[in-house]
Amino acid sequence: MKLSPLKIVIFFFVFVLFACRKDKPEPITQTFSATSNENTVFVVNEGNFMFANAALSQINLENDEVIEDIYKSINNQNLGDVLQSVYENNKYYYLIVNNSSKIEIIDKNTLRAKATITGLNSPRYMQVVSNAKAYVSDLYDNAIHILDLNSFSKIGSISINSWTEQMTYLFGKVFITAPNKDYLYIVNAEKDILIDSILLQKNCYSILQDKESNIWVLSAGNSSTNLSAKLFKINPVNFQIISTFEFGSNDTPGNLKINGTLDTLFFLNKGVWYLPIHQSLSNAKKIIALQNSNYYGLGIHPQSSEIFVADALDYVQKGNVLRYNSKGELIKSYKVGIIPSDFVFR
Predict the structure, then answer these.
(1) Which of 171, 178, 212, 226 has the largest count of CB atoms under 10 Å?
(2) How far apart are CA 277 and CA 281, in angstroms?
């Protein structure tokens, strides 16, 4: 759930629309099991805010079978309200359910529920920092939650004094985006303390690392304050900004991703663009044009380099996933859950 002013307005009208409906949602009557096929992609569907209809969809890429809500089909219960993200670690998937203030943990092979982590306010993203410990960012708590991965519980927090979003772990440190601040925050993962920050600009959401262990951070900018979107390349050792790439005034980039070989960046900006890590922003190329769609999520298959785009449509009905080959040619379209936003490749 990305709480921009536009999204808040959309949520309001969605609430009014659904409040007036008298019909009941169709029940799921089929019974499914998780596929053992490795050529599978899971789709993170946020669902409508405050309607508890988040879903984890499963797409079998070999036979194109789609299970719109595999979590409910297997566990016979609703996932919750707003599936923000999914994190894979060892034997489990961690399903971070934002507005339900919890993390559902499921077995990677069977997808059966294992445990639930509570005591969170509005969790967003997760980052494992050791075999026994992970961090979780939060929308409303000005802190990073500390999780014990053995007991599946929250054991502490690190004060950040900001809403926090995506994270990446490198050289014993966790680099944390904070959209309403001008800084990228840095935490010592051994001592669980905030140790430094890097001055960037506001509205930084996406962060990742490339094959050379450089960190990339994307700021969406803010047209209402004439803040241009920027892409930052950062040295994680000395915390220096290596390069800053500025977008045009009409650009609205988001969903920064990287390919399986960690040498090419991808992002949404009225279509799908790609940029090799050693080239400047002027060399970015549009590989997929926006075609009467509402591109809301992006994923790059780490083996095949196929491009997956989530189309949220009107944020009310079930969305689509568009599957393209590495050349940007459409392979297939799939109907999934409501507001698809991200992907997990098996």
Answers:
(1) 178
(2) 10
CB 333, CB 321: distance < 8 Å: yes
Helix (H, G, I), strand (E, B) or coil at 118: coil
For the segment 133-151, the average pLDDT, to the nearest whole number, is 97
**Structure-block tokens of residue 84:** 């923000």
Which residue's entry shows tokens 């309607």? 51
Distance CA 81, CA 160 (A): 25
Chain centroid, CA 107 distance in Å: 20
**How do residues 69-107 score in pLDDT, each as one tens digit?**
999 999 999 999 999 999 999 999 999 999 999 999 999
Among all chains, which residue has been given the structure tokens 């092979």?
A: 109
Cα–Cα distance, 165 to 170 (Å, whole number): 17
What pTM did the predictor assign?
0.90
Beta partners for 92? 89, 107
DSSP state of 181: S
Q: Give the separation between CA 70 and CA 93, rounded to whole angstroms.
A: 13
Secondary-structure breakdown of the chain: helix, strand, coil percentages, each rounded to the nearest 5? 10, 45, 45
Nearest to 207 by CA among 238, 181, 174, 250: 174
Residue 192 token pair: 């669980």
Percent of the chain predicted with pLDDT > 70:
89
In whole angstroms, give the CA distance from residue 218 to residue 252.
11
Question: CA 55, 272, 223 angle in degrees (round to 5)?
Answer: 90
The H or E element containing residue 13 is helix 5-19
Within 8 A by CB and 6+ apart from 165, the residues are: 124, 125, 137, 176, 177, 178, 179, 204, 205
- Two structure tokens written together for 149: 């991965």
The contacts of residue 233 (CB under 8 Å, 6+ apart) are 214, 215, 216, 241, 242, 243, 244, 245, 277
Most distant CA pair in the chain, distance: 59
**Cα Rg, the chain, nearest whole Å:** 19
Residue 167 and residue 127 in contact, taking contact as beta carbons nearer than 8 Å? yes
B/e letters for 38-67, b = 16+ CB within 10 Å, e = fewer, are eebbbbbbbbbbebebbbbbbbebeeeebb
